[in-house]
Amino acid sequence: MNRIASWLDLPPGHLPTIRRAVGLLLLCVLPEVVFWSHGGPGPYHVPAWRIGGVSVDIPLPPPSLDAALWGIYVVAAGAMLLDFRSRAVPAVAAAILGYYGWRDARACNSSYVQLLFTYLVAFLFARGPVHGTRRLIQCSLTACYAFSVLQKLAMPEWRQGHTLDDILRYGDGVRAIWAPLLRQLAPPAGLVRLLAPGVILVEVFIAGGLWARRTRKAAFALGIALHAGFTLIFHGVDLFAPAMLTGYLAFPDSGEEVPPGPPPRRLEVVLAAAYLAFLIAVPARIYLPPMRPWHLLTHMDHLPWTYSMFAQMDHVDSVEVAYLDRDGSRRVVAPVGRMLEASSDADLHALAREVLREHPDAGEVEVRVRLTVNHRRGLEKLVRAIRGRPPSTIVRECP
User: Fold this and answer.
1) I want to staple 337 with a disulfide (CB 3.0 to 4.6 A). Which of 41, 156, 198, 297 is the partner?
2) Closest CA relative to residue 123, chosen from 198, 25, 19, 40
3) Contact 326, 361 (CB under 8 A)
4) Which of 233, 383, 375 is nearest to 315 (CA)?
5) Do 32 and 95 contact (CB within 8 A), yes or no?
């Protein structure tokens, strides 16, 4: 126990800067989390978590309480931005971000939202002149890189270079200004297959290099270049680089001498161990049985909280929704809002539940989705939901 405690405890280092950066980022993610936690484009929301195949549906608070909670969130973010050091501030921010983030799969989908949540929890350990906050932030950042690498190694689409080839040739996820240039510079498919493992090696070096003093500067430089490049080329990831680089600041010492503080309480060590277990268990859940073969998973099936950004590029080609009424007649439902982009099991199950809710006469709902993976192969998903029973899903490859 004492060895673990001594490993966890570090002086504050650049923690004031990290605190201010987290406060600013909390304000930046506010519109995204509010939008998706309230259902996004509608007409329903998709619960982020499932237990034994059953969705855990977190209710939306009444409007007055909802507004009050977000007001408190803004105040907490502002307090962190001003380097207010009470542990109650990150506790409140983490509770609100966690509640709303876990209400919808897209609200906590972004890796930077997940990182911010773990940073906030790490700040709860900031007690005394030395504590475990920096070490836990270091571990959170490393877990992000580690599971990103694991996803790329596990997924045939990335491992064989198809995803990178798709990005370069078709500009998926790329800002419009860069897409034509990337198409012109796209290397042959054989070379792309070599570049894909190269990206993995870069992430491995950064994740490991940040821990060692001899390689820290090189890891910093490579990481800044990597994430600045992502931000410059890809749209929708503007906050990812700042969230990652905020975590980088937990590694170097500030050079300030700090007197030793009281040893951590046994409970703090246990809670820190639970934090580390959480960092591993949540993204690792996708690798545990029972699981669908990798080639039959859509990109959104991996989410949330698996750090699988850009591991596979999916395009939803068609969504067909229909239900059988009490007389057995087939009624077609026109897909709207987020139905048009539904591809994960969670999305499609929520869609089916919404149809059953909107149509009391519906006894059975059928949802058929066709999508293209990396512009090279097709998948078809068929979801059937009978009122009062869990939905069933069939996935197959198609031309």
Assistant:
1) 41
2) 19
3) yes
4) 375
5) no
